[in-house]
């Protein structure tokens, strides 16, 4: 009996070690782009969904072979992994104290990585296999998630990837309902594109209904940091500012500036802020030409 137990443990340990070794080699093969080796290891039983540390310092979170392929943009290896059961989406269940699932989060880390790296064909491939273009919570867009492929495309100004995501259902606006009373609507993607001066991206997002002026229950949201005209003006992006104003951006947009125990919280208009900070005379003139008012008040 003891011998049998010992033999079982030895065989089990060898099996686990062998599988781990296959997995580690699979990650290396994917990173090196060796598709023949990837195929061989899969046939030998390597787990295509296992996550592996990229280095001993753990500078990055563990990644699956598909995520590594998405990072490199190797669609041939990605397709091979997908055909052999690689999961394009990641699902995470949240349970209450009684063990009942109360929330289910779904996202596609591979698509997110591909969008960051600007790999259009990889994004197209992953979407064709059902990648979630928006992180979701209980089947609806998760407004609190920052790992949105569209947001990354907006940041880099990649209109090809953004267009692909939008055509496949990516949400251009974020809607948050707080305490069942207040509804906040904004477009983080548009404000990101405006902040980085990506005019063509702004045009694309607005054509899909991006909210130019953030609102709270239908009124201007004073505390939002996603005011598109504000961030564009702050960056001195004159052409973006012209376009946003043409599309209805509020030239008298206001924002609060946090104070301290000496300095009260300030509410100021965009024109006042730009003059105070000595930013972009061209944008200042544009705002004045379009009827902007210089205003500041303590709250």
What is the 3D shape? Answer: elongated
Percent of residues in beta strands?
5-15%
Largest sheet at a glance?
4 strands, antiparallel
CATH architecture of the domain at 1-86: Alpha Horseshoe
How would you name the CATH homologous superfamily of the domain at 1-86?
Ankyrin repeat-containing domain
Q: Given this structure, which CATH class of the domain at 1-86 is correct?
A: Mainly Alpha
Strand element count: 11
Structural class: alpha+beta
Write down the secondary-structure element order. Answer: HHHHEEHHEEHHEEHHEEHHEEHHE
Instruction: Compute the number of helices.
Output: 14
Q: Give the radius of gyration.
A: 25 Å
Helix content: 40-55%
Instruction: Identify the strand order in the major beta sheet.
Output: 1-2-3-4
Low-confidence stretches: 1-21
What integer is the average pLDDT? 86
- Tell me the distance between the termini: 80 Å
CATH topology descriptor of the domain at 1-86: Serine Threonine Protein Phosphatase 5, Tetratricopeptide repeat
């Amino acid at each position: 009996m003891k011998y049998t137990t010992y033999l079982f443990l030895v065989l089990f340990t060898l099996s686990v070690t062998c599988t781990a070794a296959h997995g580690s080699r699979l990650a290396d093969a994917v990173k090196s782009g060796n598709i023949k080796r990837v195929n061989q290891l899969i046939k030998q039983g390597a787990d295509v969904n296992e996550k592996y540390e990229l280095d001993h310092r753990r500078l990055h979170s563990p990644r699956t072979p598909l995520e590594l392929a998405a990072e490199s943009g190797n669609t041939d290896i990605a397709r091979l992994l997908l055909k052999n059961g690689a999961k394009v989406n990641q699902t995470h269940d949240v349970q209450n104290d009684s063990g009942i699932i109360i929330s289910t989060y779904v996202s596609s880390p591979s698509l997110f990585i591909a969008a960051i790296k600007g790999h259009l064909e990889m994004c197209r491939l992953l979407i064709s296999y059902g990648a979630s273009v928006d992180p979701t919570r209980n089947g609806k867009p998760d407004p609190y998630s920052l790992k949105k492929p569209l947001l990354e495309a907006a940041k880099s100004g990649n209109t090809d990837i953004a267009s692909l995501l939008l055509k496949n259902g990516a949400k251009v606006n974020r809607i948050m309902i707080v305490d069942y009373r207040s509804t906040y609507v904004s477009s983080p993607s548009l404000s990101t594109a405006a902040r980085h001066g990506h005019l063509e991206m702004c045009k694309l997002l607005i054509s899909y209904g991006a909210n130019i002026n953030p609102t709270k229950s239908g009124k201007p949201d004073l505390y939002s940091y996603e005011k598109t005209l504000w961030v564009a003006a702050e960056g001195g992006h004159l052409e973006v500012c012209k376009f946003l104003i043409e599309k209805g951006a509020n030239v008298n947009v206001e924002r609060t500036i946090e104070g301290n125990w000496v300095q009260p919280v300030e509410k100021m208009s965009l024109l006042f802020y730009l003059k105070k900070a000595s930013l972009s005379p061209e944008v200042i003139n544009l705002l004045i030409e379009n009827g902007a008012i210089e205003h500041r008040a303590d709250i």
